[in-house]
Design goal:
Length: 229
């Protein structure tokens, strides 16, 4: 089933996103959060892949129609984005899913990549309606999750050769989560680079590790969101 563009309430107005639903018609809800490139075809494809696994997946457009084709453009869009407004857009997407008759359960999952990974953890720390959170090599200099307020179980997917989100920073995050008693799993793929899951970027895409990370992610959401039905 192909995805569709939907509108939802956010920031006192409306926002848009890409929604993909399973052929079965019903499933747990997931918010899929873009990389710094924007809501590009790769992120829409990830939503479609989640739908084929039985989830209702919504990727909100946090750049409101803009996308980047170069790292310079992407960096400028990322830094210009208001974190408060992005959190409201994510909250709107979560509410949209939970009010959709196709979505099962009372809580949703969040999953994001790079910038979106940081926002996945941030949204989970700001919204008790997030029950499971996946972070793919998440980092953003302006995003500071409220870890003490986190109620979701966390799965972290990271790259051993990442110079942006380093293994040391991952271990520090896990130390803080453990110290706070927050359930989490962290996986560092030693031979992978930052953005290794993105099959639209052949210079960093790692098919073997991406396949394993996908398997872990799908199983994680099935396990943790199934508990909350």
């Amino acid at each position: 089933m192909p995805g569709e563009t939907v509108k939802f309430r956010s920031n006192g107005g409306t926002a848009e996103g890409y929604l993909s639903a399973p052929e079965s018609g019903r499933g747990a809800g997931l918010v899929v959060i873009q990389e710094w490139w924007g809501l590009v075809p790769h992120i829409k494809d990830v939503c479609d892949r989640f739908a084929r696994e039985g989830f209702v997946a919504l990727a909100p457009d946090l750049y409101h129609g803009e996308t980047a084709k170069s790292p310079d453009e992407a960096g400028k869009l990322m830094m210009a984005m208001s974190i408060d407004e992005a959190e409201k857009d994510l909250r709107g997407a979560i509410n949209f899913l939970l009010n959709d008759a196709r979505v099962t359960g009372g809580r949703v999952g969040t999953v994001g990549f790079c910038m979106g990974g940081a926002l996945s953890l941030y949204a989970a720390s700001k919204n008790e309606r997030v029950g499971a959170c996946v972070v793919f090599y998440g980092g953003h200099p302006k995003v500071k999750p409220d870890l003490e307020n986190l109620r979701a179980t966390v799965l972290g997917i990271y790259a051993g050769r990442d110079t942006f989100v380093t293994p040391e920073s991952v271990r520090e995050l896990q130390r803080r989560l453990n110290e706070l008693g927050k359930p989490n799993e962290m996986h560092i793929y030693e031979d992978a680079d930052h953005a290794f899951f993105n099959d639209a970027r052949p210079e960093v895409y790692n098919p073997r590790d991406a396949a394993d990370a996908w398997r872990r992610t799908v199983n994680f959401f099935r396990t943790n969101l199934e508990k909350q039905r």
